[in-house]
Write a structure and sequence with these properties.
The protein is built from 9 helices and 3 strands; from the N terminus they run αααααααβαβαβ. With 188 residues, the chain is mainly alpha-helical. Helix 8 links the parallel strand 1 and strand 2.
Length: 188
C-alpha cells in the first residue's frame, strides 16, 4: 500500500475502504493527466481537469509518490510553483492543510552545514503571513534573512509577526525573471 493510500486510510479513520480505493484511482487518473499535460498532448479541457487534480497531486508530490514521476528542479519548478498556488481550494483541503504539510519542511542537519557564526544569508521568498521557517533559520543559525512577500495584506501580517526581529529585512514585492507590475488575485 502506498504512503498516499495509508495517509488516506488514516484520514478516514479506517472506516471506508472504498474511499481508499477511490483516492488511489483519483491519483492514477490525475497522474495520467499530469503526464499528458507535461508532454504537451492536451488541450484546454484536459488542462482544466488537471487543475481539478491539484489536491491529490500536491498531496502525493511532497511525499514523492506520483506514479512514474520524478521531480526535476531545473525543469519543473515553475510548473509546480504555479500549480501549487495556495488558494481557497488548496487552503481548505485537509490533505494540504498548512500544519500537516509543514511537518515535511526542511530539517537539520543541512548539507553542507549552515554557518552558526552569523555570516550566512538566506532569501525567504513567499513568506506568507509569518515566515516561521525564516524565523527558525535566523534564530538557529544567525542567518541574515531577506524576507519577500508580494501580497499587501499578507505583508502587513508579516510585519507584525516579525516585529520582534528587526534585523530581518522585509520586502513587499516578489522576485522573478523580469521587472514588472502585476496584480495578485484571489482564486475562487
Amino acid at each position: 500500500m502506498s504512503v498516499y493510500a495509508r495517509a488516506s486510510l488514516v484520514l478516514h479513520g479506517g472506516l471506508l475502504a472504498a474511499a481508499l480505493v477511490e483516492d488511489e484511482a483519483e491519483l492514477e487518473a490525475c497522474t495520467r493527466l499530469l503526464h499528458a499535460t507535461r508532454s504537451g498532448m492536451t488541450g484546454e479541457e484536459e488542462y482544466s481537469q488537471l487543475m481539478d487534480c491539484r489536491v491529490p497531486l500536491l498531496g502525493a508530490l511532497h511525499k514523492d509518490e506520483i506514479p512514474g514521476y520524478r521531480y526535476n528542479a531545473t525543469e519543473d519548478c515553475h510548473f509546480w510553483g504555479h500549480f501549487g498556488t495556495r488558494d481557497r481550494k488548496i487552503e481548505g483541503s485537509k490533505l494540504l492543510d498548512f500544519s500537516r504539510v509543514a511537518a515535511y519542511r526542511l530539517s537539520e542537519p543541512f548539507d553542507p552545514v549552515l554557518p552558526a557564526d552569523g555570516s550566512g544569508s538566506a532569501l525567504y521568498i513567499g513568506a506568507h503571513r509569518g515566515a516561521e521557517d525564516g524565523v527558525h533559520l535566523h534564530l538557529a543559525y544567525g542567518l541574515q534573512m531577506h524576507v519577500f512577500e508580494p501580497s499587501v495584506t499578507f505583508f502587513q501580517s508579516l510585519q507584525e509577526a516579525l516585529s520582534p526581529y528587526p534585523e530581518m529585512k522585509l520586502y513587499n514585492f516578489g522576485l522573478g525573471a523580469r521587472t514588472r507590475w502585476t496584480s495578485l488575485q484571489l482564486s475562487e
